[in-house]
Amino acid sequence: MATQADTRPALRFVSPTGSRELALLAAILVAGAYFTLASPYFLSVNNLVQTMRAGLELGIVSAGMTLVIIMGGIDVSVGGILAVSAIVIGKAYQAGLPVYIVSPLGLMAGTALGAVNGFVTTKLKVPPIIATLGSMYIFSAVMFLVIGGSWIAGLPATLSPLVNGWVGFVPAAAIVLFFVYGLMWIILRKLAFGNHIYAIGCDEQAARLVGINVDRTKIATYAMLGFLAGLAALLYVARMRNVEINIGTTIALEAIAATILGGTNIRGGVGSLLGTLLGVVFIRIMQNGLVLTGVSSLWETVIIGSLLIVVLTVDAVRNRNNPRAI
Amino acid sequence: MSTPEPRQFRASDPLRMRVFVLLGLWILAIVIMSLLSPYFLQASTVPFILQYLPILGLLGLGQTLVILAGGPGIDLSVGSIVSLVGVAVGALFSIGVDIWLACGAGIVFGALLGLVNGVLVNVLRIPSLMATLATMFAFGGLAIATTGGRPIGGFPPEFAWLGQGRTLGMPNSVLFVLVPVAIVLHVMLTRTTVGRHIVACGNDDRAAHLTGLPVVRIRVGLYVLSGILSALGSVIALSWFLAARPDAGDGMELLAVTIAVLGGTYIFGGTGGIPGTILAILIITTLQIGLQLANISAAWQLGVIGVLLIASVSQVRDWRKLLSFKA
């Protein structure tokens, strides 16, 4: 295999041309340069590390979202999964359970909720957007019913070194991100499971005929996204030490935006983790820079939305002769 | 995308069956709600419930047509259009434009926003879900950002005629907007060529195209219609609250989709109708008001709507297979 040229364009970590990643990198550098000139606070270790810590949850969730979208699915309920997992974690801490029990509980909660999404889309044949819209309602209902209008506050800081700590000169948050993306890369590129995800995204019917257990792969992928949302919840609690009522409200849309910005095809079959990571960096740098340069944070959604429209339009115009691609 | 399953022969029209099922569901909802709250089954509650119908109803009707024409089409930006049109009308009014004229401009604006969606989805062929998610962000964010999140108030009291006024005990917004719109759309869908064309596009757009139907133009037109109906809903909301809230439409898109699919519109298009949608609006509104009157947490509304949404799309045929635990 090693001697053969890699002719599987969809399976590469960097997309075939790498043009999307390069474009994003250029955009990040341009935005960074502008914000450096516009604000003296932007280019400081403190600011950048803080931005990364605050973007940790988005980065983690986006990695899972990339896999789901490559598979031709979507999950708009990740914010709800994150919230419910965070509540499980908070309540478990309050019940006095030690961290080595609380953490698996939170991860299991996330995984289970993700698996439920996968189950509804595959076995009940509900299209993923509808299924996850519905489960988003249900998860937020659960959240409101459990914590009402109040916060779960004063949680222990046992895990906060994972977010706030340093390993030598490297922030721990960067190491966490590295591990998550590394793991996802291995799953996507080195395991048969990853090939199945691409295959289902390219042509579900063909994947089924080839003998791939489509339903099981789908449920596992949604469960994996749920697991990552659980992990994000764990880190959220470690960072904030409380659970607010508006936890996770925008993360699903931001994760989808980061994934699409990163070049993953919304119709499935094509996508890269590196692109997604750069998409997350871009979104967070824009948000941080805009706040530092005094633009109201209310403009964030307008900017993300318009950016998405521009990127989708560019993709559509570039690929207008290719019926498969957008 | 999943391939549509072959239609099974049924003794009766599945859509008509759906209407009966929905009617039963609605009666069930009314019975449960009147058991939960003694205030529910009173004559004075009826206009109160009707008051809530038109805004969501108009969005649900627009959504029904967009989904019905296939593609697969969906319009997640309707709630944001409600917010943005409201803010625009408020801004026009505050610079001295006559309120009814401002509303007219707002409806034209809504049509333009719908046109943006239609072009993104059908001409540029961006998947509807993604395109309208992006415009939902953009429109809703614009409403919040331009106003700084503050509501615009100070509408004249005579403007309340539409949203608060009643004729013969019925809210004007129902009598003069929702009912005529529903009737016109129903007649269009079942009695005119355009209606048949919409259904044809939803059933098989390739065949429709080969027959010579302007599939793209029809679908773009329906997105525009959805924008217009959302703007109408926005005007009713303005007239009801006499203020333009920049987050007025938040969450409405999900309710609109729920209403359309609960009403029997097949999520990939080709099957669906106005009567089912109207009943779905009645069911959702009854649940909302009933739970509110019974003083049950709003969280339950969310949960019930989520379950309804999933249950109404899931294919009942598969339940038996599901219970046998085969992969």
Q: In a nutshell, what does this entry contain?
A:
Chain A is mainly alpha-helical and 326 residues long.
Characterize the structure shown:
The complex is a heterodimer of chains A (326) and B (327). Chain A is an all-alpha fold. Chain A has a single domain (9-316), classed as ABC transporter involved in vitamin B12 uptake, BtuC, CATH 1.10.3470. Chain A is 69% helix and 1% strand. Chain A is built from 14 helices and two strands. The longest helix of chain A has 27 residues, at 214-240. Chain B has a single domain, classed as Orthogonal Bundle (ABC transporter involved in vitamin B12 uptake, BtuC), CATH 1.10.3470. Chain B is 70% helix and 1% strand. Chain B contains 14 helices and two strands, in the order ααααααββαααααααα. Chain B has helices at residues 14-36, 45-68, 78-94, 99-123, 128-147, 160-164, 172-191, 193-203, 205-210, 215-241, 252-262, 274-293, 298-313, 319-323; strands at residues 166-167, 170-171. Chain B has a two-stranded antiparallel sheet with strand order 1-2. Classes of the chains: A mainly alpha (326), B mainly alpha (327). Chains A and B meet through α6, α12 and α14 of A and α5, α11 and α13 of B.
Write the SSE topology.
The complex is a heterodimer of chains A (326) and B (327).
Chain A: H1 19-38, H2 45-54, H3 56-70, H4 78-94, H5 99-122, H6 128-147, H7 161-164, E1 166-167, E2 170-171, H8 172-190, H9 192-202, H10 204-210, H11 214-240, H12 251-261, H13 273-292, H14 300-318
Antiparallel strand pairs in A: 1-2
Chain B: H1 14-36, H2 45-68, H3 78-94, H4 99-123, H5 128-147, H6 160-164, E1 166-167, E2 170-171, H7 172-191, H8 193-203, H9 205-210, H10 215-241, H11 252-262, H12 274-293, H13 298-313, H14 319-323
Antiparallel strand pairs in B: 1-2
Helix pairs in contact in B: 1-12, 2-7, 2-10, 2-11, 2-12, 3-4, 3-5, 3-10, 4-5, 4-10, 7-8, 11-12, 11-13, 12-13
